Amino acid sequence: MTTAASNHPTGTASANPHKVSHISVFGEAIEFFDEAASNLELDPNIKRILTHPSRQVIISIPFQRDNGDFDVYTGYRVQYSFARGPAKGGVRYHPDVTLDEVTALAFWMTWKCAVVDLPFGGGKGGVTCDPRVLSKNELERLTRRYAAEIMEVIGPDKDVPAPDVGTTPQIMAWIMDTVSMHNRGYTPGVVTGKPLNVGGSRGRVEATGRGVMIAIQSALEKMGKKLQGQRVVIQGFGNVGSISALLLREHGAKIVGISDQYVGLQNPAGIDVESAIAYINAPENPRRSLEGFPGCDTLSNQQLLELPCDILVPAAIENQLTADNARKIKAQIIAEGANGPTTPAADGLFSQAGVTVIPDILANAGGVTVSYFEWVQDRMGYYWREREVNERLGEVLRENFDAVWNLAQNHKVTLRTAAYMLAIQRVVDSLTTRGIYA
Ligand code: GLU
Q1: Tens-place pLDDT, residues 191-211
Q2: CB distance 103 to ligand 1 below 6 Å
């Protein structure tokens, strides 16, 4: 295990996160922080601390393939901040995972947890792999070895992983079991997003999508509009995209475009989302692809993003809305279900064009909020009803959405800058109250 409290946060480029020479996800993410920090007139000493991750762990994970051969994959856990509590954030299994990306994701988790006022810092993990080509047994062996390798740095009071792109409640169960076996004691609070029968929370699977819907409803309310009849396009049909689509439709919106990594689909009369979810889950569709779903025209990813609609929900991965396509986007509201879907350049163009962007750290904070509820329930050993979970989620998100909205109005800044300002101020307050151990 390499544990690096590195002075070059991307681990790949210059010592100054602002001057990375290649396109760095973390380098770009810092631009959003900078904008908010200058509005807050943040002390440069504090700023220096907050633009570096606390700890970056890199591990090699040997695991045995079903044919007996050994493969070695690279895994990461980045703990960006502990100022407000244990680090918190998902684990991503994807072929494009790098230290730079995981660092950016851990950075975003820090501000996400703070903007909804959870008692957590920020973290993220990842393994560079394609989970779609691994058998269930291979996935289990890989996960258990990954969990064993990061065991010293995770735990209910240290760092609490959760699902992200490419990981599932089953994978969280294996992490929990591996840690519990080594601890010689049931430790459900080490990870969230678990299945219900091993200490998961009711409402967790739907929580990120529900949060996206609540964020959109809150924004529309401020604008004096209703969700009823709004045309919505959703990019990505994983946990976040599919459940956002389902709930938005249930509450009166018309879903006119959806997509996954294989295909885009449109139907201006509205897509039957329930049938689309049943379609990807059918046993005869092992790739879980939307390809061939009836009643829709197919289109490319770019065409999907540029469809005529009122609301666009990017719910896939980073860097989808860029300087190249931003001017062609028709939506007046963008709700970021994914982490980091908009580049800083595109964000500037949306702001000039008067497009309301509900930033990732607010729009997709529903997942980690119910992860927090799960962690609380695990520690109490007392589990809440789904209605209680959803009510509390609604309260947390609406209250903090209002705070961000008001800050944006008062300072005449975008919702993104306001969300960062609120989050940074909360982290700074905890950091300075604790004092800097230097
Ligand atoms: N991976 C999710 C996110 O990006 C959830 C994190 C969590 O629940 O800790 O917000």
Answers
A1: 999 999 999 999 999 999 999
A2: no
